[in-house]
Amino acid sequence: MAAGVARTDSLAADFPPSFTWGVSTAAYQIEGAAREGGRGPSIWDVFSQTPGKVARGDTGDVACDHYHRWREDLELLRELGVGAYRFSVAWPRWQPSGRGEVNPAGRDFYERLVDGLLDIGVAPWLCLYHWDLPQALQAQGGWSRRDSVEWFGDYAASVMGVLGDRVEHVAVLNEPNVVGLLGHLLGVHAPGLTDLAAYVAATHHLNLATGDTLARLRAEHAGWRLGTILNLQPVLAESDDEPDAAAATLLDAVWNGNHLEPLVSGRYPPATEAMMAPVVEEGDARRIRQPLDWFGLNLYSQLRVAADPASLVGLRLVDPPEAVETTAMGWEVAPEALSRQLVEAAARLGDVPIVVTENGAAYRDRPGPDLEVDDALRTRYLERHVREVQAARERGVDVRGYFVWSLLDNFEWHEGYAKRFGLVYVDYASQQRSPKRSFRWFRELIRSGCIPASDAVR
Ligand code: IFM
């Protein structure tokens, strides 16, 4: 039995040995070395260096210094026992201005990382885009411009041309809905736009980039397991009244439907079809709707919404009832949302296997001596969510894997470093890493295939 774990043995495992357990990270959130190794500037460098955009003026300049400490981080993965590690390639580290020659130092970095993962028996799951568009491409219009579809496809083919002999699992995009909404309409993420036309165009081009890249990579090599990742959340209407129900339908279409529906049916949801129509061209639907080998679901919470005629879009988000637990992000803890969303996504996706590619929580971790963190709340959050994965599987949903967000505390976008999601505590002053209680809980789950009670792991 793993040290510090009290567990009754001889129970039948909750998950089969073939189930993939992993952790996810993203380049800008952990790598640092923003101006090293030939890396070009990304939209997140520019955004985070703009006063007032990120809490406390935090930037990804150093982050977890993973660019230099990746060996130490692989050691953590080995100790955790995961079968898979999902990371993203920074486009501006690969191609500093987004097009043309590959940056040799960037290529070497990802080759070493992939080789290092394979050496310790951890499957690399490579995500091609986790939000760090090269600034040089933003200067030409970024995702709002239709050319972005081709720029991205060329970059993707270049990455896979080098790493594709060692990487099998590829995610095209991570959470395009966040890129579109938070980056182009609400302005709280890079590139910081508050422009409905930019949102509509970027959303459609992200969908087109997904479809075209899936088709292009599939044509290049049939052995790659190609997927893409959406952040989906159930949307609850504040009441049964018609205006609140309509607000929920609209938010569901914008948050969930605007990416999931084109992927599965080629169409935008009825509630957003007219809004999206100006950018849709003949043949786009067919290009977007491509077969998937797997679908990645990121889920943290659920949304509550009410009609609000006074607001610009006619709706407002509603806080959960007071008794409902929330995380340090203010997000409602709603484990049942995960099984519900898995069932709903499966109904739309047909027989495409689903992988939970992100799930986790930020809490106000209080390190004790030696940076020891007893993150009981996160451990319990994870336990409750993994039980919902099990419940969804029992209801017939083909869930093949579960990845915790995240391995390390890291740069949480406009919230900066104060919001900690890691299984491993990072002391940013010393860059010392310290596994938390949740790390030991997850390690025991991976080892045994049985869900340990969160309070049984110390
Ligand atoms: O940190 C992010 C990640 O980059 C994308 N999904 C949600 C996480 C928590 O906000």
Pick out the low-confidence regions. Answer: 1-10
> CATH fold name, please?
TIM Barrel
The CATH class, by name, is Alpha Beta
Number of helices, counting only DSSP H or I runs of 4 residues or more: 15
Total number of beta strands: 13
Give the SSE order as H and E letters. EHHHEHHEHHEHHEEHHHEEEHEHEEEH
Q: State the distance separating the first and last CA atoms.
A: 13 Å
Strand order of the largest sheet: 1-2-3-4-5-7-10-11
- Count of all domains: 1
In one word, what is the shape?
globular
Full CATH superfamily name: Glycosidases
Mean pLDDT rating: 96
CATH architecture: Alpha-Beta Barrel
Name the hetero compounds present.
5-hydroxymethyl-3,4-dihydroxypiperidine
The proportion of residues in beta strands is 5-15%
Summed up, what is this model?
This protein is of the alpha/beta class and 458 residues long. 39% of the residues lie in helices and 14% in strands.
What characteristics describe this protein?
three-stranded mixed β-sheet; eight-stranded parallel β-barrel; single chain; binds 5-hydroxymethyl-3,4-dihydroxypiperidine; 39% helix; alpha/beta
Task: Report on this structure.
This protein has helices at residues 27-30, 43-48, 66-80, 91-94, 104-119, 135-138, 148-163, 176-185, 196-220, 242-265, 273-276, 284-288, 336-349, 376-394, 437-448, and strands spanning 20-24, 84-88, 123-127, 169-174, 225-231, 235-237, 294-298, 303-307, 315-317, 354-358, 399-405, 424-427, 432-435. With 458 residues, it is of the alpha/beta class. It has a single domain (20-456), classed as TIM Barrel (Alpha-Beta Barrel), CATH 3.20.20.80. Strand 12 and strand 13 form a beta hairpin. Helix 7 packs parallel to helix 9, helix 8 (176-185) runs antiparallel to helix 9 and helix 9 (196-220) runs parallel beside helix 10 (242-265). It starts with 19 loop residues before the first strand and ends in a 10-residue tail after the last helix. The model is unreliable at 1-10 (pLDDT under 50). Bound molecules: 5-hydroxymethyl-3,4-dihydroxypiperidine (IFM). 5-hydroxymethyl-3,4-dihydroxypiperidine is lined by residues 26, 29, 175, 231, 298, 358, 405, 412, 421.
